[in-house]
Amino acid sequence: LTAEKEGQKIAVEIKSFLSRSPVKDLEVALGQYVLYKGIMTFREENRQLYLAIRDDVYLDIFSEPIGRIFYRGGCPMDNLMDNLTEYGQIIESTLRHYASIPYSHGDVTHQVIVDANRQNFLLMTIGWEGHRRVHAVIVHIQIVGDKIWIQRDGIEDSVTADLEEAGIPKDKIVLAFYPDHVRPHTGYAIA
Which of 117, 134, 152, 162 has a CA-to-CA distance to 28 between 20 and 30 Å? Predict the structure, then answer.
């Protein structure tokens, strides 16, 4: 259900919790909550999402420690999704900045490519330098889980430093272009 009043938008997911397994019902409710929250974020809807349950379900399931995590205080996934949305905006903005810098010679342009799910961000160089075709990935950044994976960093002074300066914590950045055994020595996340 959705509603809007005086500029405030809400969506309510009503769950019955009628199966034999309350844990399974909680799993389904949480999964749908995360899915709907993601859809609303993707559509850029400024809508607060609520989960509606019966009083007996609240007293039985949501009064337990595991249930309290998800009730009234908001789902912990909200913060994660908000952070990932913000990180995606930072990544895209940073890459667009680099794309706006003109190439020094040749008929070459920079393009930022973002996939539909906002999981992959590319800075490409495309064009011609004399008779030579130029087509290269300069930067590839991927959001995997709750981390930002730098798959390729071809920026002279490092795009990673720009992302940090813009507010993405070091413990959320994985320098994926280094092998696993080197990552613990980088000061960034290892995976």
Answer: 117
